[in-house]
Write a structure and sequence with these properties.
Among the domains are: 111 residues, Helix Hairpins, CATH 1.10.287; 131 residues, NAD(P)-binding Rossmann-like Domain (Rossmann fold, 3-Layer(aba) Sandwich), CATH 3.40.50.720; 140 residues, NAD(P)-binding Rossmann-like Domain (Rossmann fold), CATH 3.40.50.720. Helix 5 runs parallel beside helix 18. The strands form 5 sheets. A 6-stranded parallel sheet has the order 3-2-1-4-5-6, with helices on both faces. Strands 13-12-11-14-15-16 form a 6-stranded parallel sheet, sandwiched between helices. It has a 4-stranded antiparallel sheet with strand order 7-10-8-9. The longest helix is centred in the N-terminal third of the chain and has 37 residues. The chain has 624 residues and is an alpha/beta fold. The chain is built from 20 helices and 22 strands.
Protein backbone atom coordinates (compact mmCIF):
# COMPACT_ATOMS: atom_id res chain seq x y z
CA UNK A 1 0.00 0.00 0.00
CA UNK A 2 2.84 2.39 0.90
CA UNK A 3 4.59 1.49 -2.37
CA UNK A 4 1.41 2.31 -4.28
CA UNK A 5 1.10 5.62 -2.49
CA UNK A 6 4.71 6.53 -3.30
CA UNK A 7 4.25 5.51 -6.95
CA UNK A 8 1.03 7.56 -7.15
CA UNK A 9 2.77 10.57 -5.57
CA UNK A 10 5.77 10.22 -7.88
CA UNK A 11 3.54 10.02 -10.98
CA UNK A 12 1.70 13.17 -9.93
CA UNK A 13 4.98 15.00 -9.46
CA UNK A 14 6.28 13.84 -12.83
CA UNK A 15 3.11 15.04 -14.56
CA UNK A 16 3.77 18.59 -13.32
CA UNK A 17 6.59 19.00 -15.82
CA UNK A 18 10.21 20.13 -15.83
CA UNK A 19 10.12 22.36 -12.74
CA UNK A 20 8.77 19.53 -10.59
CA UNK A 21 11.53 17.16 -11.77
CA UNK A 22 14.22 19.72 -11.03
CA UNK A 23 12.73 20.30 -7.59
CA UNK A 24 12.76 16.54 -6.76
CA UNK A 25 16.37 16.11 -7.92
CA UNK A 26 17.50 19.18 -5.99
CA UNK A 27 15.86 17.98 -2.78
CA UNK A 28 17.32 14.48 -3.27
CA UNK A 29 20.87 15.75 -3.87
CA UNK A 30 20.89 18.14 -0.92
CA UNK A 31 19.27 15.48 1.26
CA UNK A 32 22.11 13.10 0.40
CA UNK A 33 24.67 15.82 1.13
CA UNK A 34 23.18 16.51 4.58
CA UNK A 35 22.95 12.82 5.48
CA UNK A 36 26.55 12.18 4.41
CA UNK A 37 27.70 15.27 6.32
CA UNK A 38 26.12 13.85 9.48
CA UNK A 39 27.70 10.41 8.89
CA UNK A 40 31.16 11.96 8.41
CA UNK A 41 30.80 14.02 11.57
CA UNK A 42 29.75 10.95 13.64
CA UNK A 43 32.35 8.58 12.11
CA UNK A 44 35.22 11.05 12.58
CA UNK A 45 34.67 11.41 16.30
CA UNK A 46 36.06 14.34 18.23
CA UNK A 47 39.25 14.54 16.14
CA UNK A 48 37.60 14.20 12.76
CA UNK A 49 35.83 16.83 10.64
CA UNK A 50 32.77 18.42 12.16
CA UNK A 51 29.28 18.56 10.64
CA UNK A 52 29.95 21.80 8.77
CA UNK A 53 33.19 20.51 7.22
CA UNK A 54 31.53 17.17 6.43
CA UNK A 55 28.64 18.98 4.76
CA UNK A 56 31.11 20.97 2.65
CA UNK A 57 33.11 17.88 1.65
CA UNK A 58 29.92 16.05 0.63
CA UNK A 59 28.73 19.03 -1.41
CA UNK A 60 31.95 19.47 -3.39
CA UNK A 61 32.08 15.72 -4.15
CA UNK A 62 28.52 15.90 -5.51
CA UNK A 63 29.33 18.95 -7.63
CA UNK A 64 32.76 17.81 -8.85
CA UNK A 65 33.41 14.04 -9.30
CA UNK A 66 37.14 14.74 -9.75
CA UNK A 67 37.47 15.86 -6.13
CA UNK A 68 37.62 12.25 -4.95
CA UNK A 69 41.13 11.88 -6.43
CA UNK A 70 42.55 14.24 -3.78
CA UNK A 71 41.11 12.39 -0.76
CA UNK A 72 43.15 10.68 1.95
CA UNK A 73 43.36 7.00 0.79
CA UNK A 74 44.23 5.74 4.30
CA UNK A 75 40.71 6.46 5.55
CA UNK A 76 38.78 3.69 3.77
CA UNK A 77 35.31 4.41 5.25
CA UNK A 78 35.69 8.06 4.28
CA UNK A 79 36.74 7.13 0.71
CA UNK A 80 33.77 4.75 0.34
CA UNK A 81 31.38 7.44 1.57
CA UNK A 82 32.80 10.01 -0.80
CA UNK A 83 32.58 7.52 -3.71
CA UNK A 84 28.92 6.98 -2.93
CA UNK A 85 28.28 10.74 -2.84
CA UNK A 86 30.29 11.22 -6.07
CA UNK A 87 28.32 8.54 -7.97
CA UNK A 88 25.10 10.04 -6.63
CA UNK A 89 26.25 13.45 -7.92
CA UNK A 90 27.08 12.03 -11.34
CA UNK A 91 23.62 10.43 -11.57
CA UNK A 92 21.74 13.49 -10.31
CA UNK A 93 23.55 16.09 -12.36
CA UNK A 94 23.57 14.05 -15.59
CA UNK A 95 19.82 13.57 -15.15
CA UNK A 96 19.40 17.26 -14.37
CA UNK A 97 21.41 18.21 -17.47
CA UNK A 98 19.20 16.02 -19.65
CA UNK A 99 16.06 17.51 -18.15
CA UNK A 100 17.27 21.09 -18.71
CA UNK A 101 18.33 20.32 -22.30
CA UNK A 102 14.93 18.78 -23.01
CA UNK A 103 13.19 21.77 -21.45
CA UNK A 104 15.23 24.18 -23.58
CA UNK A 105 14.49 22.11 -26.71
CA UNK A 106 10.77 22.05 -25.89
CA UNK A 107 10.82 25.82 -25.41
CA UNK A 108 12.57 26.33 -28.75
CA UNK A 109 10.01 24.07 -30.44
CA UNK A 110 7.21 25.99 -28.73
CA UNK A 111 8.65 29.28 -29.98
CA UNK A 112 8.91 27.85 -33.50
CA UNK A 113 5.25 26.84 -33.28
CA UNK A 114 4.34 30.42 -32.48
CA UNK A 115 2.82 29.88 -29.04
CA UNK A 116 4.60 32.63 -27.09
CA UNK A 117 2.72 35.76 -25.96
CA UNK A 118 3.00 38.88 -28.10
CA UNK A 119 4.20 41.89 -26.10
CA UNK A 120 3.02 44.84 -28.21
CA UNK A 121 0.75 47.85 -27.88
CA UNK A 122 -1.47 49.49 -30.47
CA UNK A 123 -0.99 46.63 -32.92
CA UNK A 124 -3.34 45.28 -35.60
CA UNK A 125 -4.24 41.58 -35.49
CA UNK A 126 -5.16 39.59 -38.62
CA UNK A 127 -6.87 36.28 -37.87
CA UNK A 128 -6.78 33.90 -40.83
CA UNK A 129 -4.74 33.66 -44.00
CA UNK A 130 -7.52 33.39 -46.59
CA UNK A 131 -7.41 35.18 -49.95
CA UNK A 132 -6.40 38.82 -49.76
CA UNK A 133 -3.91 38.42 -46.90
CA UNK A 134 -0.98 39.81 -48.89
CA UNK A 135 -3.05 42.82 -49.96
CA UNK A 136 -3.92 43.56 -46.33
CA UNK A 137 -0.30 43.23 -45.20
CA UNK A 138 0.91 45.43 -48.07
CA UNK A 139 -1.65 48.11 -47.24
CA UNK A 140 -0.85 48.10 -43.52
CA UNK A 141 2.88 48.40 -44.26
CA UNK A 142 2.10 51.42 -46.45
CA UNK A 143 -0.26 52.96 -43.85
CA UNK A 144 2.41 52.60 -41.16
CA UNK A 145 5.22 54.04 -43.29
CA UNK A 146 5.00 57.50 -41.70
CA UNK A 147 4.95 56.10 -38.15
CA UNK A 148 8.14 55.15 -36.31
CA UNK A 149 7.19 51.81 -34.79
CA UNK A 150 4.17 49.69 -35.67
CA UNK A 151 3.38 46.00 -35.28
CA UNK A 152 1.16 43.55 -37.14
CA UNK A 153 0.26 40.15 -35.69
CA UNK A 154 -0.96 37.35 -38.00
CA UNK A 155 -2.48 34.14 -36.61
CA UNK A 156 -3.73 30.96 -38.27
CA UNK A 157 -3.34 27.21 -37.84
CA UNK A 158 -2.93 26.28 -41.51
CA UNK A 159 0.87 26.63 -41.51
CA UNK A 160 3.72 26.40 -38.99
CA UNK A 161 5.18 29.66 -37.74
CA UNK A 162 8.45 29.26 -39.64
CA UNK A 163 6.52 28.62 -42.87
CA UNK A 164 4.42 31.74 -42.25
CA UNK A 165 7.55 33.77 -41.49
CA UNK A 166 9.22 32.62 -44.71
CA UNK A 167 6.07 33.35 -46.69
CA UNK A 168 5.86 36.92 -45.35
CA UNK A 169 9.60 37.60 -45.65
CA UNK A 170 9.72 36.36 -49.24
CA UNK A 171 6.76 38.52 -50.24
CA UNK A 172 7.74 41.60 -48.22
CA UNK A 173 11.54 41.92 -47.92
CA UNK A 174 11.11 45.62 -47.07
CA UNK A 175 8.59 46.04 -44.28
CA UNK A 176 9.52 49.70 -43.72
CA UNK A 177 8.52 50.60 -40.14
CA UNK A 178 6.23 47.60 -39.55
CA UNK A 179 7.25 44.52 -37.59
CA UNK A 180 5.26 41.42 -38.57
CA UNK A 181 4.80 38.74 -35.91
CA UNK A 182 3.31 35.36 -36.87
CA UNK A 183 1.58 33.05 -34.41
CA UNK A 184 -0.02 29.63 -34.84
CA UNK A 185 -3.37 28.81 -33.33
CA UNK A 186 -7.07 28.26 -33.86
CA UNK A 187 -8.57 31.68 -34.66
CA UNK A 188 -11.84 30.65 -33.00
CA UNK A 189 -10.27 29.31 -29.78
CA UNK A 190 -10.14 31.78 -26.89
CA UNK A 191 -7.10 30.14 -25.26
CA UNK A 192 -5.09 30.17 -28.49
CA UNK A 193 -6.05 33.77 -29.20
CA UNK A 194 -4.80 35.06 -25.86
CA UNK A 195 -1.18 35.05 -27.06
CA UNK A 196 -2.04 37.90 -29.48
CA UNK A 197 -2.53 40.40 -26.62
CA UNK A 198 -6.06 41.60 -27.23
CA UNK A 199 -5.81 43.79 -24.14
CA UNK A 200 -3.46 46.20 -25.94
CA UNK A 201 -4.39 45.82 -29.63
CA UNK A 202 -5.80 48.63 -31.77
CA UNK A 203 -8.03 46.63 -34.11
CA UNK A 204 -8.70 43.11 -35.37
CA UNK A 205 -9.28 41.87 -38.94
CA UNK A 206 -10.95 38.49 -39.33
CA UNK A 207 -9.84 36.96 -42.62
CA UNK A 208 -11.38 33.48 -42.44
CA UNK A 209 -12.20 31.37 -45.49
CA UNK A 210 -15.89 30.81 -44.68
CA UNK A 211 -18.74 32.45 -42.78
CA UNK A 212 -18.99 29.75 -40.11
CA UNK A 213 -15.38 30.25 -39.07
CA UNK A 214 -15.77 34.03 -39.25
CA UNK A 215 -18.77 33.92 -36.88
CA UNK A 216 -16.94 31.71 -34.38
CA UNK A 217 -13.91 33.97 -34.50
CA UNK A 218 -16.07 37.07 -33.92
CA UNK A 219 -17.57 35.43 -30.83
CA UNK A 220 -14.12 34.52 -29.45
CA UNK A 221 -12.57 37.94 -30.10
CA UNK A 222 -15.59 39.77 -28.66
CA UNK A 223 -15.31 37.68 -25.49
CA UNK A 224 -11.63 38.62 -25.11
CA UNK A 225 -12.16 42.33 -25.79
CA UNK A 226 -14.90 42.40 -23.15
CA UNK A 227 -12.80 40.38 -20.71
CA UNK A 228 -9.86 42.77 -21.08
CA UNK A 229 -12.13 45.87 -21.14
CA UNK A 230 -10.47 47.01 -24.37
CA UNK A 231 -13.33 49.19 -25.59
CA UNK A 232 -11.13 51.14 -27.99
CA UNK A 233 -10.40 48.12 -30.18
CA UNK A 234 -12.88 46.80 -32.74
CA UNK A 235 -13.29 44.00 -35.27
CA UNK A 236 -13.55 44.28 -39.06
CA UNK A 237 -14.89 41.24 -40.89
CA UNK A 238 -16.42 40.29 -44.24
CA UNK A 239 -19.47 38.02 -44.52
CA UNK A 240 -20.12 36.33 -47.86
CA UNK A 241 -23.72 35.26 -47.32
CA UNK A 242 -25.97 38.27 -46.72
CA UNK A 243 -28.20 36.14 -44.48
CA UNK A 244 -25.33 35.77 -41.98
CA UNK A 245 -24.66 39.49 -41.62
CA UNK A 246 -27.18 40.10 -38.82
CA UNK A 247 -25.89 37.07 -36.90
CA UNK A 248 -22.35 38.45 -37.18
CA UNK A 249 -23.46 41.86 -35.91
CA UNK A 250 -25.20 40.22 -32.94
CA UNK A 251 -22.06 38.17 -32.20
CA UNK A 252 -19.93 41.33 -32.30
CA UNK A 253 -21.99 43.10 -29.58
CA UNK A 254 -21.00 46.52 -30.90
CA UNK A 255 -17.31 45.65 -31.24
CA UNK A 256 -17.59 44.61 -34.90
CA UNK A 257 -17.90 46.36 -38.25
CA UNK A 258 -19.41 43.77 -40.58
CA UNK A 259 -19.19 44.10 -44.36
CA UNK A 260 -21.21 42.11 -46.87
CA UNK A 261 -18.96 40.75 -49.62
CA UNK A 262 -21.76 40.37 -52.16
CA UNK A 263 -23.15 43.82 -51.39
CA UNK A 264 -19.80 45.59 -51.79
CA UNK A 265 -18.70 43.75 -54.91
CA UNK A 266 -22.06 43.90 -56.70
CA UNK A 267 -22.24 47.67 -56.28
CA UNK A 268 -18.64 48.21 -57.38
CA UNK A 269 -19.07 45.94 -60.40
CA UNK A 270 -22.37 47.59 -61.39
CA UNK A 271 -20.95 51.13 -60.99
CA UNK A 272 -17.79 50.21 -62.89
CA UNK A 273 -19.77 48.70 -65.75
CA UNK A 274 -21.53 52.04 -66.28
CA UNK A 275 -18.43 54.25 -66.08
CA UNK A 276 -15.18 53.35 -67.84
CA UNK A 277 -12.17 53.76 -65.57
CA UNK A 278 -14.16 53.80 -62.34
CA UNK A 279 -12.36 50.71 -61.05
CA UNK A 280 -9.18 52.82 -60.95
CA UNK A 281 -10.99 55.43 -58.86
CA UNK A 282 -12.21 52.83 -56.37
CA UNK A 283 -8.75 51.29 -56.10
CA UNK A 284 -7.20 54.72 -55.57
CA UNK A 285 -9.52 55.74 -52.74
CA UNK A 286 -9.53 52.34 -51.08
CA UNK A 287 -5.80 51.62 -51.11
CA UNK A 288 -2.98 53.30 -49.17
CA UNK A 289 -0.73 53.98 -52.12
CA UNK A 290 -2.52 56.98 -53.66
CA UNK A 291 -5.07 59.35 -52.18
CA UNK A 292 -7.44 57.95 -49.59
CA UNK A 293 -9.95 59.22 -47.06
CA UNK A 294 -8.87 60.65 -43.70
CA UNK A 295 -10.85 62.18 -40.85
CA UNK A 296 -8.91 65.09 -39.35
CA UNK A 297 -9.38 68.04 -37.01
CA UNK A 298 -8.97 71.50 -38.55
CA UNK A 299 -10.44 74.03 -36.06
CA UNK A 300 -9.82 76.91 -38.48
CA UNK A 301 -12.40 75.38 -40.87
CA UNK A 302 -15.27 76.43 -38.56
CA UNK A 303 -17.77 78.78 -40.18
CA UNK A 304 -16.95 77.78 -43.78
CA UNK A 305 -18.94 75.81 -46.34
CA UNK A 306 -17.64 72.83 -48.27
CA UNK A 307 -17.16 74.97 -51.39
CA UNK A 308 -15.11 77.57 -49.45
CA UNK A 309 -12.97 74.87 -47.85
CA UNK A 310 -12.07 73.34 -51.21
CA UNK A 311 -10.70 76.74 -52.24
CA UNK A 312 -8.56 76.75 -49.08
CA UNK A 313 -7.02 73.26 -49.25
CA UNK A 314 -4.42 73.21 -52.06
CA UNK A 315 -3.52 69.50 -52.05
CA UNK A 316 -6.58 67.83 -50.50
CA UNK A 317 -10.29 67.55 -51.27
CA UNK A 318 -12.86 68.10 -48.52
CA UNK A 319 -15.87 65.83 -49.10
CA UNK A 320 -17.81 66.20 -45.85
CA UNK A 321 -17.96 66.63 -42.07
CA UNK A 322 -18.00 64.37 -39.02
CA UNK A 323 -20.17 66.08 -36.42
CA UNK A 324 -19.37 66.20 -32.72
CA UNK A 325 -21.98 63.48 -32.05
CA UNK A 326 -20.34 61.17 -34.61
CA UNK A 327 -22.85 61.79 -37.43
CA UNK A 328 -21.30 61.72 -40.90
CA UNK A 329 -22.35 64.28 -43.51
CA UNK A 330 -21.01 63.39 -46.94
CA UNK A 331 -21.43 66.05 -49.63
CA UNK A 332 -23.73 68.15 -47.38
CA UNK A 333 -26.07 70.97 -48.43
CA UNK A 334 -24.15 73.84 -50.11
CA UNK A 335 -24.96 76.39 -47.39
CA UNK A 336 -24.06 74.12 -44.46
CA UNK A 337 -21.05 75.47 -42.55
CA UNK A 338 -18.54 73.53 -40.47
CA UNK A 339 -18.96 74.00 -36.73
CA UNK A 340 -16.30 74.35 -34.07
CA UNK A 341 -16.10 70.68 -33.04
CA UNK A 342 -16.59 69.21 -36.51
CA UNK A 343 -13.88 67.12 -38.12
CA UNK A 344 -13.27 67.13 -41.86
CA UNK A 345 -13.46 64.15 -44.20
CA UNK A 346 -10.55 64.62 -46.58
CA UNK A 347 -9.27 62.89 -49.70
CA UNK A 348 -5.50 63.26 -49.30
CA UNK A 349 -2.17 61.62 -50.12
CA UNK A 350 -1.43 60.85 -46.48
CA UNK A 351 -2.53 61.72 -42.96
CA UNK A 352 -1.05 65.02 -41.84
CA UNK A 353 -0.49 66.20 -45.45
CA UNK A 354 -3.59 68.43 -45.55
CA UNK A 355 -3.21 72.11 -44.72
CA UNK A 356 -5.22 75.29 -45.24
CA UNK A 357 -4.11 78.43 -47.04
CA UNK A 358 -4.57 81.82 -45.39
CA UNK A 359 -7.26 82.91 -47.88
CA UNK A 360 -9.45 81.25 -50.52
CA UNK A 361 -7.95 80.84 -53.98
CA UNK A 362 -9.54 82.77 -56.82
CA UNK A 363 -11.53 81.10 -59.62
CA UNK A 364 -12.15 81.86 -63.29
CA UNK A 365 -15.87 82.63 -63.62
CA UNK A 366 -15.65 82.71 -67.42
CA UNK A 367 -14.86 78.97 -67.48
CA UNK A 368 -17.89 77.92 -65.40
CA UNK A 369 -21.10 77.23 -67.32
CA UNK A 370 -24.06 79.30 -66.17
CA UNK A 371 -26.51 76.48 -66.85
CA UNK A 372 -25.81 72.98 -65.68
CA UNK A 373 -26.77 70.11 -67.96
CA UNK A 374 -27.42 66.83 -66.24
CA UNK A 375 -27.60 63.76 -68.43
CA UNK A 376 -30.86 61.85 -67.87
CA UNK A 377 -30.95 58.12 -67.23
CA UNK A 378 -30.82 56.27 -70.53
CA UNK A 379 -31.88 52.92 -71.82
CA UNK A 380 -29.01 50.50 -71.73
CA UNK A 381 -28.35 47.07 -73.17
CA UNK A 382 -25.77 44.86 -71.48
CA UNK A 383 -24.38 41.38 -71.98
CA UNK A 384 -23.38 39.45 -68.86
CA UNK A 385 -21.17 36.41 -69.43
CA UNK A 386 -21.23 33.76 -66.72
CA UNK A 387 -22.91 33.35 -63.35
CA UNK A 388 -21.88 34.75 -59.99
CA UNK A 389 -23.54 34.55 -56.59
CA UNK A 390 -23.53 38.37 -56.77
CA UNK A 391 -25.65 38.54 -59.94
CA UNK A 392 -28.91 39.31 -58.10
CA UNK A 393 -27.28 42.27 -56.36
CA UNK A 394 -25.64 43.47 -59.59
CA UNK A 395 -28.93 43.44 -61.49
CA UNK A 396 -30.79 45.20 -58.65
CA UNK A 397 -28.08 47.85 -58.42
CA UNK A 398 -28.08 48.42 -62.19
CA UNK A 399 -31.88 48.74 -62.11
CA UNK A 400 -31.55 51.87 -59.93
CA UNK A 401 -29.60 53.82 -62.55
CA UNK A 402 -30.99 52.98 -66.01
CA UNK A 403 -34.16 54.07 -67.80
CA UNK A 404 -37.18 51.85 -68.26
CA UNK A 405 -36.87 49.59 -71.29
CA UNK A 406 -33.24 48.59 -70.67
CA UNK A 407 -32.31 45.03 -71.54
CA UNK A 408 -29.72 42.65 -70.11
CA UNK A 409 -28.79 39.30 -71.63
CA UNK A 410 -27.25 36.77 -69.25
CA UNK A 411 -25.35 34.02 -71.07
CA UNK A 412 -24.73 30.85 -69.07
CA UNK A 413 -22.67 27.78 -70.01
CA UNK A 414 -24.28 24.38 -69.62
CA UNK A 415 -22.57 23.85 -66.25
CA UNK A 416 -24.40 26.89 -64.82
CA UNK A 417 -27.78 26.30 -66.46
CA UNK A 418 -29.39 25.39 -63.14
CA UNK A 419 -28.95 29.02 -62.04
CA UNK A 420 -31.47 30.16 -64.67
CA UNK A 421 -34.44 29.90 -62.31
CA UNK A 422 -32.75 32.12 -59.71
CA UNK A 423 -32.16 34.85 -62.31
CA UNK A 424 -35.70 34.57 -63.72
CA UNK A 425 -37.14 35.21 -60.24
CA UNK A 426 -35.32 38.55 -59.72
CA UNK A 427 -37.85 41.42 -59.67
CA UNK A 428 -36.70 44.55 -61.55
CA UNK A 429 -38.48 47.81 -62.49
CA UNK A 430 -36.52 49.14 -65.45
CA UNK A 431 -34.66 46.14 -66.84
CA UNK A 432 -35.90 43.09 -68.71
CA UNK A 433 -33.58 40.09 -68.36
CA UNK A 434 -33.15 37.33 -70.92
CA UNK A 435 -31.23 34.21 -69.96
CA UNK A 436 -29.63 32.23 -72.79
CA UNK A 437 -27.69 29.01 -72.60
CA UNK A 438 -24.60 28.70 -74.79
CA UNK A 439 -20.91 27.83 -74.72
CA UNK A 440 -19.44 31.22 -73.78
CA UNK A 441 -15.92 29.79 -73.93
CA UNK A 442 -16.12 28.97 -77.65
CA UNK A 443 -15.62 31.49 -80.43
CA UNK A 444 -18.86 30.63 -82.22
CA UNK A 445 -20.89 30.73 -79.01
CA UNK A 446 -19.56 34.16 -78.09
CA UNK A 447 -20.03 35.64 -81.55
CA UNK A 448 -23.70 34.64 -81.56
CA UNK A 449 -24.22 36.99 -78.59
CA UNK A 450 -22.43 40.07 -79.93
CA UNK A 451 -23.87 43.16 -81.58
CA UNK A 452 -22.22 46.09 -83.30
CA UNK A 453 -22.09 48.02 -79.98
CA UNK A 454 -21.54 45.99 -76.81
CA UNK A 455 -21.38 46.70 -73.08
CA UNK A 456 -20.09 43.46 -71.59
CA UNK A 457 -19.67 42.27 -68.02
CA UNK A 458 -17.64 39.09 -67.43
CA UNK A 459 -18.32 37.52 -64.03
CA UNK A 460 -16.39 35.06 -61.87
CA UNK A 461 -18.08 33.02 -59.18
CA UNK A 462 -16.08 33.55 -55.99
CA UNK A 463 -17.24 30.54 -54.01
CA UNK A 464 -16.95 30.35 -50.24
CA UNK A 465 -13.82 28.52 -49.11
CA UNK A 466 -12.39 28.34 -52.64
CA UNK A 467 -8.71 27.33 -52.82
CA UNK A 468 -6.01 28.84 -55.05
CA UNK A 469 -6.15 26.01 -57.57
CA UNK A 470 -9.88 26.51 -58.17
CA UNK A 471 -9.43 30.28 -58.43
CA UNK A 472 -6.68 29.77 -61.03
CA UNK A 473 -8.93 27.54 -63.12
CA UNK A 474 -11.78 30.05 -63.03
CA UNK A 475 -9.50 32.93 -63.93
CA UNK A 476 -8.11 30.88 -66.81
CA UNK A 477 -11.63 30.57 -68.25
CA UNK A 478 -12.16 34.32 -67.90
CA UNK A 479 -8.88 34.97 -69.70
CA UNK A 480 -10.08 32.75 -72.54
CA UNK A 481 -13.27 34.82 -72.88
CA UNK A 482 -11.34 38.10 -72.83
CA UNK A 483 -8.92 36.98 -75.51
CA UNK A 484 -11.84 35.86 -77.70
CA UNK A 485 -13.49 39.27 -77.26
CA UNK A 486 -10.25 41.00 -78.24
CA UNK A 487 -10.11 38.85 -81.38
CA UNK A 488 -13.64 39.92 -82.39
CA UNK A 489 -12.84 43.56 -81.70
CA UNK A 490 -9.71 43.50 -83.87
CA UNK A 491 -10.90 41.27 -86.73
CA UNK A 492 -14.66 41.81 -86.95
CA UNK A 493 -14.91 45.46 -85.94
CA UNK A 494 -17.17 45.00 -82.92
CA UNK A 495 -17.05 47.97 -80.55
CA UNK A 496 -16.95 46.92 -76.91
CA UNK A 497 -16.84 48.28 -73.41
CA UNK A 498 -15.71 45.34 -71.28
CA UNK A 499 -15.64 45.09 -67.49
CA UNK A 500 -14.23 41.86 -66.11
CA UNK A 501 -14.19 40.42 -62.64
CA UNK A 502 -11.07 38.43 -61.70
CA UNK A 503 -10.30 36.36 -58.64
CA UNK A 504 -6.53 36.87 -58.33
CA UNK A 505 -4.53 40.06 -58.74
CA UNK A 506 -1.68 38.20 -60.45
CA UNK A 507 -3.99 37.15 -63.28
CA UNK A 508 -5.15 40.72 -63.84
CA UNK A 509 -1.64 41.53 -65.04
CA UNK A 510 -1.80 38.63 -67.52
CA UNK A 511 -5.18 39.81 -68.79
CA UNK A 512 -4.01 43.34 -69.60
CA UNK A 513 -3.13 42.08 -73.07
CA UNK A 514 -6.87 41.73 -73.70
CA UNK A 515 -7.22 45.53 -73.34
CA UNK A 516 -10.24 45.34 -71.03
CA UNK A 517 -11.63 48.71 -69.96
CA UNK A 518 -11.90 47.80 -66.27
CA UNK A 519 -10.83 44.98 -64.01
CA UNK A 520 -12.43 44.30 -60.65
CA UNK A 521 -10.48 41.85 -58.48
CA UNK A 522 -12.91 40.74 -55.77
CA UNK A 523 -10.52 39.65 -53.03
CA UNK A 524 -8.27 42.63 -53.67
CA UNK A 525 -11.03 45.27 -53.43
CA UNK A 526 -12.58 43.82 -50.28
CA UNK A 527 -9.15 43.53 -48.65
CA UNK A 528 -8.46 47.20 -49.42
CA UNK A 529 -11.79 48.25 -47.88
CA UNK A 530 -11.25 46.10 -44.78
CA UNK A 531 -7.75 47.50 -44.23
CA UNK A 532 -8.95 51.09 -44.49
CA UNK A 533 -11.74 50.48 -41.97
CA UNK A 534 -9.38 48.74 -39.54
CA UNK A 535 -7.39 51.99 -39.46
CA UNK A 536 -10.40 54.30 -39.03
CA UNK A 537 -13.73 52.85 -37.95
CA UNK A 538 -15.89 55.68 -39.27
CA UNK A 539 -14.73 55.03 -42.82
CA UNK A 540 -17.23 52.18 -43.02
CA UNK A 541 -20.13 54.64 -43.02
CA UNK A 542 -18.41 56.71 -45.73
CA UNK A 543 -17.80 53.71 -47.97
CA UNK A 544 -21.35 52.44 -47.51
CA UNK A 545 -22.69 55.88 -48.44
CA UNK A 546 -20.60 55.91 -51.62
CA UNK A 547 -21.69 52.43 -52.66
CA UNK A 548 -25.43 52.49 -52.07
CA UNK A 549 -28.10 53.69 -54.47
CA UNK A 550 -29.47 56.30 -52.04
CA UNK A 551 -27.40 59.28 -50.99
CA UNK A 552 -24.10 60.31 -52.52
CA UNK A 553 -22.42 58.11 -55.13
CA UNK A 554 -19.33 58.40 -57.32
CA UNK A 555 -20.13 59.35 -60.92
CA UNK A 556 -18.12 60.01 -64.05
CA UNK A 557 -19.82 62.87 -65.93
CA UNK A 558 -18.80 64.86 -69.03
CA UNK A 559 -16.60 67.85 -68.22
CA UNK A 560 -18.74 69.83 -70.67
CA UNK A 561 -21.63 69.68 -68.20
CA UNK A 562 -19.69 71.96 -65.86
CA UNK A 563 -17.12 74.08 -67.71
CA UNK A 564 -16.22 75.37 -71.15
CA UNK A 565 -14.09 72.70 -72.83
CA UNK A 566 -11.13 73.39 -75.09
CA UNK A 567 -9.50 75.79 -72.63
CA UNK A 568 -7.09 75.17 -69.78
CA UNK A 569 -8.87 75.28 -66.43
CA UNK A 570 -7.33 75.10 -62.96
CA UNK A 571 -8.72 72.56 -60.51
CA UNK A 572 -9.90 75.30 -58.10
CA UNK A 573 -12.30 76.47 -60.81
CA UNK A 574 -13.35 72.90 -61.68
CA UNK A 575 -14.10 72.23 -57.98
CA UNK A 576 -16.23 75.37 -57.79
CA UNK A 577 -18.13 74.41 -60.95
CA UNK A 578 -19.01 71.04 -59.41
CA UNK A 579 -19.82 72.59 -56.00
CA UNK A 580 -22.48 74.85 -57.56
CA UNK A 581 -24.36 71.69 -58.49
CA UNK A 582 -23.93 70.20 -55.00
CA UNK A 583 -21.22 67.89 -56.23
CA UNK A 584 -17.65 67.35 -55.04
CA UNK A 585 -14.93 66.99 -57.65
CA UNK A 586 -12.50 64.25 -56.61
CA UNK A 587 -10.71 63.75 -59.94
CA UNK A 588 -11.05 63.61 -63.68
CA UNK A 589 -10.84 61.22 -66.63
CA UNK A 590 -8.84 62.06 -69.74
CA UNK A 591 -9.52 60.08 -72.93
CA UNK A 592 -7.13 60.06 -75.88
CA UNK A 593 -9.02 60.94 -79.08
CA UNK A 594 -7.01 58.62 -81.30
CA UNK A 595 -6.31 55.55 -79.17
CA UNK A 596 -9.21 55.76 -76.71
CA UNK A 597 -6.73 55.22 -73.89
CA UNK A 598 -8.07 56.37 -70.54
CA UNK A 599 -6.17 58.18 -67.78
CA UNK A 600 -7.74 58.62 -64.35
CA UNK A 601 -6.40 61.25 -61.94
CA UNK A 602 -7.75 61.46 -58.39
CA UNK A 603 -7.28 64.37 -55.99
CA UNK A 604 -5.15 66.47 -58.39
CA UNK A 605 -3.27 69.50 -57.01
CA UNK A 606 -5.73 72.39 -57.10
CA UNK A 607 -3.29 74.80 -58.74
CA UNK A 608 -2.68 72.51 -61.75
CA UNK A 609 -4.25 73.50 -65.07
CA UNK A 610 -5.86 70.89 -67.34
CA UNK A 611 -7.06 71.17 -70.91
CA UNK A 612 -10.45 69.46 -70.84
CA UNK A 613 -11.87 68.27 -74.19
CA UNK A 614 -15.37 67.09 -75.07
CA UNK A 615 -14.47 63.43 -74.46
CA UNK A 616 -13.07 64.14 -70.98
CA UNK A 617 -15.02 63.79 -67.75
CA UNK A 618 -15.15 64.84 -64.11
CA UNK A 619 -15.16 62.23 -61.35
CA UNK A 620 -17.60 63.58 -58.75
CA UNK A 621 -19.42 62.65 -55.58
CA UNK A 622 -23.04 63.59 -56.18
CA UNK A 623 -26.59 62.97 -55.03
CA UNK A 624 -28.45 61.69 -58.05
Amino acid sequence: MKKNRFTYWFDNQMSKGTIALIRILTIASFGAVVIMGIIIAIAGGSKGPGFGEGLWLSLIHVLDPGTVCGDDLSNVPFILGMLFVTFLGIFIFSTLTGIICNAIDEKVQELRKGKSIVVEEGHVIILGTAGGLFTMVSELIECNANHKREALVIMDDKEDKDVMDDMINDRFPDKKTTRIICRCGNIADVNDLKVCSFDTCKSVIINADNDARTLKSILAVTKLLKEYHNDNAYITAVIRNEENKEAAEVAGEGYAEILSFNDIMSRIIAHTGRNAGLSVVYTEIFDADGSEFYIEEHPEAAGRTLSELNRLFPVSTVIGFVKADGAILLNPEPDLKAEKDDRLILLAEDDGESHMDASPHGINEDHILKEYYKEPAEKKDMLILGYSSKIKYILEEEDNYVASGSRITVALPESQALCREEIDNIKLKNISVEVVECDIYSRSGLESLLKEENTILVLADNEEGMDDETAEKKDAKILLILLQLKYFSETRGYRMTVTSEMLKTENQELAEIAEVNDFVVSSNITSLVVTQICQERKLKAIFEELLRAEGSDIYVRPAGCYIRTGEKTDIYTACEAAARQREVLIGYRKTDKETGEIEIVTNPPKSSEVLFEEQDAFVVIAVD
